[in-house]
Write a structure and sequence with these properties.
homopentamer; alpha+beta; Beta Polymerase, domain 2; seven-stranded mixed sheet; 11 helices; about 15% strand
Chain lengths: ~350, ~350, ~350, ~350, ~350
């Protein structure tokens, strides 16, 4: 995943402008609408935004979900229908925003990041949620639909989701996105454990690159998920009368999850830092080991090689001078030399032993 | 201990769902009930949850402790009897939660971590405590019972525990769990001291791995115990009328213990960091030492070996040319060479001495 | 960009003194004035400060922009006309100030930094903005004009800028400067990505210098942009009645951008730190690799070279002593020696294999 | 000094239990009592706790100091006489507590650490002080009495100590203990300065161990003294009506000292960290230096040694083949070889010069 | 500059005691008095403290400045005359205090640090300022007078200093001291830039020592200047009615300067940290480079030297055995050997090329 993921207009563009996105391929959008109360349930596919208007006037809660990448035209139609603020519209359209919560009159606008694994590397997808007094609109610019479990619970009337208000639906949507952090972090934890074992057993340069990649992903994951805590904190302290008291308990549970996710990411960060230290120290230790072997062998044999080199000289070959290497003519010259050389080697070994080199 | 220890439902599961845990082996549960007041004491083993109902109506304080892993069925029965919130129930069932305190109407729900040594490595066990106006329910999903000293004090009527209210019982339970941190940290401190000595005397690659393990354990221990301070702080500031003023002094003492435990963990963290630095610097220093020996020996003998190699050449053997190694024919060629070589060696030694290499 | 960029008077100079700047070359200044309301638009080039006086009494909003470096004389004339505080005047004149917001009676004075790339390295330019009840004066001591998009929007009556008050114009000016951070950080992110690839593939000493330069630029960029968050926070909390409620939403959006910019800079900082670790570990690993090859080759051949040196000695040449290297006279001496040496080499290889060196 | 110094009861012990301390040797205790007012002074040695009772009823201020290690029995007698809370009693008895201030009804209980040098290494001693409306009780479980200067001032009626209230006596006791930090930190600073010089001149492995010890001591010292700031802050904000307004100024001075001590400890910490960096970099630089010498010498002589080795081969000795080392038969073979070898050596030197290796 | 610079009395000394300072040489003191109002100006040298008394009763503002080191006697006379608190007196006398602001009834006491360069290294001098309703007393225990510019402005009636109150004079004194930080930090910045260039071009062990010294100075400078921000913050929030509203703007400007100075010091700190990293990595890279050259040369020539050593053996000299080095007798033995050795060298080169070693 690239470090810089924010989509933005050229500076100076009027707020609320929706330029065409230069994404490589556009993702086809589909709009689903669910209208429900404790006793009523209706689910339709919407092809025209205008169709949603009718549901707004009904007493039931309406949840409109736009999966995929709608055109600026469609977004403008939604904005007109639901009186969406131009700045919010721009944030929905230009993904890569920082998670945040913003309250416009009687509306709560939430941007939240969904972390998912694509090809073994973590990416983040922006989900934008609008909550009014009796409707929720959610935008998810991706192929994969994450809200199916909620829809199932709505259809089956399981749990309390049908009998509660808009705030509980908002909580359910936020909760599912935040909880997606746990499987992602579990996989991440397993990766760290695997790498740690590799590090302790046989570290290679490749291990290092894997470690660097983990740190990089963690860094980006942290930037993506960190603001969720503030988001939920703001939601809990929110003065808008959208959140009921009995939903607060659920949101506090959700808040605890964001704290736990942050704790985990901090632990992972410290773990990867500690693993890098382990790698570096390990490498240093091994280098030391290698050098000790080289030094012991070299310092023993280099002087010996010099000595045998001396007696390979040809001084005595052509001269009869008694100064010319008389040792060569001694009766016991050769064995004496061996004794002498063994003495040097032994002395060296004792010296190294004392130094504690082996 | 694995880094990721939280048990969780698939994202999107309705809150309060209790799925079967995929733990390798289930731990048989046993329920003990103590009913006491200053003048009354009754202790029974409970086999059916229904049996607890009778005690709730009595004026005495009832403490129900569930040791081991109860089935979801049992948990649901407790939930019904004591009106436990589904979210709390889920947190009791899915262990590995972050320590926290949560107040539901007239009930205080506490999750706290007990650090224990298993096979010389630290693990953490979750203990969940429910405190109502005249009852305390505690869950501990483990074999080992940690609350026996409290039970003894209750039976013997020692200290003030029998004459106080529910809040003092809650304090006693929290206090014993938090104080278990001290022996754990004392053992940890001894491990650090032992390792430090090993580092200063004869560090090996194994020392490094031990150090890494200490850092890892400390990291996880920190994540487990850090939230206890906030927990107690919240309990002290709590507006629920469960905590009486004279128990506050005891809770403040307990709070001081959590701070002291955090102080210790910080010191340990800094110590392990400093020890790693010591290891790395030590290794570097030794490498330097090794290399200096190699270099001194090599740079002295390599030129000398070259010189004796020169006079081992066979130029003078086959030619009578006066240009062919006339040195070999000199009367004092051999001793002159020795003087020359000694001069080189001496020069080198002086050079190294000046560099301060030995 | 130099680390120290602040221009200052000698300590003890009376506040509000405007000394001549010792910049190498002065930048010619030009003053543009725009007078506008929802229904009216006038744009003129101003050559004398006095000319501005007439516009102040009119009900329209007046925006005076001074591009380039005005003389102290001109500044004093503006100060007199708009009752600018001497301290503010000094800050406009001595660029390199810390971004800040200051409210003088009925006036808001803002200093903000514009980050731009000059010759592939980031520099920062100070923009000073004065906002009164119906006028805005902006100073930008540089050649390049950054506010042209605003002027275009004013001329074309696009967006809401013409129908809003002074606070919206102030927001628009701040917004364009802060948003200039995004393209700068995007370029920065690409530089980091490129360098990371270079690091992973073929790191050289030059890579290291590039990395150091990135860190340096990031450090300075951080110092320049960090105070923007506080600035906007202060503006949002400001009690001056200059900021209307419906502009607050826009300023909050602007505030979010400063937070996102800080998040990005933090991520970049951590990335560059991680990249340095990668570099160092990589270098260490390679050194280890190099040393292993050297050691394996050396320790195999050094003893062998000693052995063949032994049999190059001339003991047997001149003596008939039976102690003088009898091995040379053996029938199978030469092949036996080869077998012996092969044995040593093989033993060494097995030893290194076991050590896991190749 | 060991890292873990806290004395604690087994978890689950009832609060206020005083078990026998397992210290290696007990320190005999002595109790001194001073009863004073502006006009009155009486100093006695107390052998029975009961004797103190009489003084409590008198209007003068009574200061009881227990130097050494009293038995649990004695402590209980004091507790009964002065209505000391069991938790406070336990903290007095089990030394190694975190410095803190606690207010029980009309009583202020303070635990504070006194840093002293014993055998050139810093240890900390706990001093516990109880302040009531007209008495102060202080406990110091050590041989050495630190409060003698206060006693002298009381006897001589020097300064204002006799004419002030209990709060000023409490301040005087705290002040003397906190100020003991300055000579300790001065000595520490001198140690750092000495070690820094050693590092810059001739660092050895021993220097490293000294540095590690300094860091260790600093770490423990920090844990001991850090809480003093909070303690004084709490005392300053205290709502108990024990502290008069004119004593606040003195306590604020005392508070400033704790801040200055923390500043110094932070500086020391950064200094030791910087010194370790210096050590490591210094070692690396020297290693580089050593390796450069080895490499220059080796790479010049190794090829030359090969060449002279070539002409030491015996091909021409036994054969008459004209392919067998004809160079040996050339008239100028030997001098040509020297010229050739000098050329190689010169080339190498130029190569190294260009690389900037010497 | 030493790390520990605080002067202190032995712990337990009564507050306000002025012992003789053990500074190596005392600095002669001189007292100057300026009495001024908008219309009046008088400047005299004072030889007796008593002379100041007359000016106190006059309506003009009196500024008494004591340059150099007054005797305890003189200090006591000032204390009596101006009702200076003993603790403040002690702080004036014992220099090396932490910058702070303290308000005694109707008096503001300020301690502030002046950073100056002495012999190319930074030291700090303590300046103590007392401000009452119509007088200011300043103490500067140093030779060099820093307040001359203020005096000039007072004499020339330049700026507003003569027409304002005591608070503006206090601001002017603080401002000049704080602003002295800018030239000091500018020089520091230049030192860092110079060192950075040295590091990038030709780092030596001396560069490292210079870097360490910079870090050390920065550390001490930070401790000296850091509290200035809090000091000014306290002054701005001060409830004493000494500071008028229109002076607050000036103090806020002064506050901004302290923040900017802190920003600069943080940037410098990060820069020096980054430079150390650059140094270490650079050294590591160069070591790698050196080792690669050594390894390539060694591993090519060591096997070749072994081979020529083999054919320098004397097996064939004395024996006629057909097993004794028959290669020497081959017609093309010598050229075949050269081809063989060239093959080995070429193989090695290809191997190293593939490893990417050159």
């Amino acid at each position: 995943m690239a470090i810089f993921t924010k989509q933005y207009h050229p500076p100076g563009t009027a707020p609320g402008t929706l330029s065409d996105l230069e994404t490589t391929e556009s993702i086809e959008y589909r709009i689903s609408l669910i209208n429900f109360s404790d006793t009523y349930f209706e689910e339709i596919k919407v092809d025209k935004v205008e169709k949603c208007r009718a549901f707004l006037k009904q007493p039931e809660i309406t949840w409109i979900h736009i999966q995929g990448q709608p055109t600026p035209q469609i977004l403008h139609e939604f904005a007109t229908l639901f009186e969406i603020h131009p700045l919010a519209l721009e944030d929905i359209h230009n993904t890569g925003q920082r998670p945040k919560i913003e309250s416009y009159d009687n509306q709560l606008f939430t941007i939240i990041n969904l972390p998912i694994f694509v090809d073994d590397s973590i990416i983040s997808e922006q989900i934008s949620i609008f909550a009014g007094s009796d409707y929720v609109i959610s935008f998810h610019m991706s192929e994969k639909d994450s809200f199916e479990p909620i829809r199932k619970r709505l259809r089956k009337h399981s749990g309390k989701i049908r009998s509660r208000n808009v705030d509980y639906l908002l909580y359910s949507l936020l909760d599912i996105i935040i909880d997606e952090g746990f499987p992602v972090l579990e996989t991440f934890g397993e990766k760290i454990d695997t790498l740690e074992e590799e590090l302790l057993e046989k570290p290679t340069n490749n291990t290092l690159k894997k470690l660097h990649n983990l740190k990089r992903e963690l860094l980006i994951l942290r930037r993506m998920l960190w603001p969720h805590r503030d988001l939920l904190n703001k939601l809990l302290r929110d003065e808008s009368n959208l959140i009921n008291d009995d939903t607060t308990i659920y949101l506090r549970d959700c808040y605890d999850h964001t704290v736990q996710i942050m704790d985990l990411m901090e632990t992972y960060r410290d773990m990867t830092a500690s693993m890098l230290d382990l790698y570096l120290s390990s490498i240093s230790y091994k280098l030391n080991d290698v050098m000790r072997v080289l030094t012991v062998i070299s310092t023993i044999f280099i002087p010996l090689t010099f000595i045998v080199g001396v007696y390979g000289m040809n001084f005595s070959v052509n001269t009869k001078s008694s100064w010319a290497m008389p040792e060569l003519h001694w009766e016991y010259g050769y064995p004496i030399l061996w004794i002498f050389m063994s003495g040097i080697a032994l002395g060296m070994l004792i010296f190294f032993k004392r130094k504690g080199w082996f």
